[in-house]
Amino acid sequence: MVMQRLSGWGRTAWTVADLVHTTEVDVVRSTLGTAGERGVISRGLGRSYGAAAQNAGGIVLEMTSENDPMGIDADFDPMSGLLTVAASVSIDAILRMCVPQGWFIPVTPGTRFVTVGGAIASDIHGKNHHIDGSFGQHVRSLTLMLSNGEVVELSPKQNPVWFWATVGGMGLTGVVIRATIAMLKIESSRVEVETVRLENFDAVCAAMSADGADDDYRYSVAWVDLLATGASMGRGVLTRGDHAAASKVDNKDPLAYDPRLNVSAPGWVPNGLLNKWSIKAFNEAWYRKAPAKSHIGLESIPAFFHPLDGVNRWNRLYGKQGFIQYQFIVPLDRTDVLRKVIEKFSGAGVASFLAVLKRMGPQNAAPMSFPTEGWTLTLDMAAGISGLAELLSEVDSLVLDAGGRHYLAKDSHVSASAVRRGYPRIDEWMSIQEEMDPIGLWRSDLSRRLGLVDHRRSL
Question: 220, CA 20 to 30 Å: which among 211, 228, 371, 375?
């Protein structure tokens, strides 16, 4: 156990905790017995943007494994595609092991450096939610250690109430030890991608609507230019596709997979490098680079799913001030809210290096899972922008009044009342969480700020 200063991927709100790095069940159990009133939270690779995996003054269980695909703690059946794996294993390691055998992770976020435990706790989603749902819908079972050290088996059929409380439960029901995941069969390590640029917000929404061609593609996402104004406001680049057939890959080994980190962001980046003007120039270049008419081509798995992973520690590009990633969802019939949000950011000149729009499918059974049928917009912004907190508060009201919500794995901003409004089943989940953790052991900085756990222990 070592005292460690920790933050989320956004590099804001640093706090200090006692860090225990382990993947051993017995060590996890013994550590729980040493916890004081500040409790315990588990942590994977630290890719939650806010404080979901921090615990000021308490204990943080850092559960990560080496990424050697030959040595990871996993049992994979290439006939059925069922993968039973330790929660400490990353999506990166899984892909290195499974893609050459013709299988892909069923849901991946924008980074492959996420552990299985973190994927379950955040119920991650990707570009295919409108077709395949979120990560939890592909978990066939999981092993969970409760606060009293007991290990239980959960699944959608075996104690489904506890299972779905754990999916999207932000690590507050227990420590996931192992999970069995249904993988996706593929023929190649390439993705057949259609790319087209769209001149404004209306064109983007029309192209991605359910009555268009979007449901013909497993994966779909649009980059949106928040700094464009006038007739070009909300212009974007739409990319969508599916795993390519082996016959379309000009390669002796169509399943060859070797992702690499190309460059590393320097540690000395000054605040303000990513500003309105540099991002405006990038947006213009990115938009013009995209074809004006639909173009279909092949891309590698890393290029299509995890482009930012090519830059090691890219979060340092915002400098020491760090950045906020802000993600919300609103119902499908509330594109007017999306328009108002884009107008607010465009009018304020607040630059977002990444602004990503996706259309989401129906919600699963997890009370605290973020995705529900609707439009989700993800933005990231330098934390030091003047007036940012006030702008985001205005956007919060628009989102909540429309019946939307915010993604807790990205959050470092919203209030406890906003979460209560956005997640109508929160009281149900808190009741289940108390049943699973009657001593109030599981705690994080996020849970304290948002009131996700009660006062069974001193705060």
Answer: 228
Dihedral of CA 179/184/190/196: which sign? negative
pLDDT tens, N- to C-terminus, the chain (459 residues): 899 999 999 999 899 999 999 999 999 999 999 999 999 999 999 999 999 999 999 999 999 987 655 568 899 999 999 999 999 999 999 999 999 999 999 999 999 999 999 999 999 999 999 999 999 999 999 999 999 999 999 999 999 999 999 999 999 999 999 999 999 999 999 999 999 999 999 999 999 986 668 889 999 999 998 888 888 888 999 999 999 999 999 878 999 998 976 666 666 556 666 667 777 787 778 778 888 888 999 999 999 999 888 888 888 888 888 889 999 999 999 999 999 998 898 888 777 778 899 999 999 999 999 999 999 999 988 888 888 899 999 999 999 999 999 999 998 889 999 999 999 999 999 999 999 999 999 999 999 999 998 655 544
Residue range of the domain that includes 35:
2-63+442-449
202 with 342, same domain: the answer is: yes
Query: Does 268 share its domain with 353?
Result: yes
Contacts of residue 75, defined as CB under 8 A and 6 or more positions apart, other chains included, come to: 83, 84, 85
| DSSP conformational letter for 90 | B
- Tokens 């699944």 correspond to what residue? 155
Pick from 210, 277, 214, 272: nearest CA to 240: 214
What is the tally of structural domains in the chain? Answer: 3
Pairwise CA distance, residues 342 & 155, whole Å: 40
Query: Do 280 and 389 fall into the same domain?
Result: yes
Q: Are residues 57 and 146 in the same domain?
A: no
Q: Is 362 exposed, middle or buried (0-12, 13-18, 19+ CB in 10 A)?
A: exposed
pTM: predicted TM-score of the whole model, two decimal places: 0.94
| Helix boundaries (H) for 23-64 | 25-32
Is 68 inside a domain boundary?
Answer: no
The overall longest dimension of the chain from CA atoms, in Å, is: 62
Query: What's the CA gap between 154 and 184, in Å, rounded?
Result: 22
Per the domain annotation, does 456 fall within a domain?
no
Q: Provide the 8-state DSSP code for 183.
A: -
Residue 453 backbone phi and psi in degrees, to 5: -125, 155
Nearest CA-CA partner of 147 in 275, 281, 312, 34: 34
Domain shared by 399 and 316, yes or no: yes
Same domain? 311 vs 219: yes
* CATH number of the domain encompassing residue 167: 3.30.465.10
Closest to 91 measured CA to CA, from 47, 127, 148, 152: 47
* Same structural domain, 314 and 277: yes
